[in-house]
Design brief:
Oligomer: single chain
Radius of gyration: 18 Å
Order of helices and strands: EHEHHHEEHHHEEHEEHEHEH
Largest sheet: 8 strands, mixed
Number of helices: 11
Structural class: alpha/beta
Length: 296
């Protein structure tokens, strides 16, 4: 049994899309399991349906307004470097409305519904493929994996959206009596889950460099500080996920092929820049090709 597992990483998901395109179209890989966290959860349904052109079109055309109905950020470009600043007015409006977060991402929920149709959902329900998304249950302090075949159409769209909600910048969602947030808060790359479900080979796409290649820029505002803190936490969780995944693979005689980014793509993965994401998709494809040539 083969599994494709894709980590979280916001806009860097375009790079994962390029890698997946190469694996499916050039290597002709066939996967039984598709598991995703955060941005990975946005990719896996289309990849399981082999609708690569469609998901590429989405990933290379989104912008901030595609994600946020209330955007807590201002993107400032200084000398070619994009930095995030607080949109004080939007944040204040959101707090006055009684929101628990700085911003709201209901536009993303609508985008997901527009791009994953009910007929496509039924095709996946009837197929032999398993599609799972990872979410963090804040109320029960646990990580949950939502299997498409166990969900209604509306519920599965909700779980994909929830998996992507990078709290406190995006929506904190109450569902089934619990508060849920980004799957990456609990599991950045669900390699272990793929193997416990029976995968004997895992292709894992991690949207970070294998080794740290840069020091974090000093924070200039509270958002910078929060981003750095969450980035640090995510790096530690990812490292643990990989370490545990490798141990579980060894115990179960499974193999793992890792795909990391060859360089730091961005330090602001909540910035959705069309030109950058088009470039990252192509770079992902080329990186998978180069890695395949090196290993052959």
């Amino acid at each position: 049994m083969r599994a494709l597992v894709i980590s979280g990483g916001g806009s860097k998901g375009a790079f994962a899309g390029g890698i997946a395109q190469y694996l499916l179209e050039e290597e002709k890989r066939s996967y039984d399991l598709f598991l995703g966290t955060s941005t990975g959860s946005l990719l896996i349904s289309h990849l399981a349906l082999n609708k690569i052109a469609e998901i590429k079109e989405i990933y290379t055309n989104v912008d901030q307004s595609s994600i946020f109905n209330i955007n807590p950020f201002l993107i400032v470009n200084r000398k070619g470097v994009e930095r995030i600043k607080i949109n004080h007015l939007n944040v204040l409006k959101n707090f006055i409305r009684g929101s628990k977060t700085f911003g709201e991402s209901y536009n993303l929920r609508k985008l997901i519904e527009d791009q994953i149709s009910y007929p496509d959902f039924k095709i996946l329900q009837k197929s032999q493929k398993e599609v799972l998304v990872c979410v963090s249950n804040i109320t029960t302090n646990s990580v949950e994996y939502k299997k498409l075949k166990d969900c209604s159409y509306v519920d599965f769209l909700d779980w994909i959206w929830i998996s992507c909600n990078y709290v406190p910048f995006m929506s904190l969602v109450t569902k089934n009596g619990c508060e849920y947030a980004d799957g990456g808060l609990g599991c950045v790359i669900p390699i272990e889950k793929a193997i416990t479900l029976g995968a004997t080979h895992v292709d894992a796409i991690l949207l970070d460099t294998e080794f740290q290649q840069t020091n974090r820029v000093h924070s200039r505002n509270p958002f910078d500080a929060l981003s750095s803190i969450f980035g640090f936490i995510a790096d530690r969780i990812e490292s643990q996920n990989v370490h545990i995944g490798k141990l579980v693979a060894e115990d179960n005689h499974a193999s793992i092929r890792m795909f990391y980014t060859p360089k730091v793509l961005t330090t602001n993965s909540l910035v959705f820049n069309k030109a950058h994401m088009e470039m990252w998709w192509q770079q992902g494809w080329e990186h998978a090709r180069d890695q395949a040539l090196t290993s052959s």
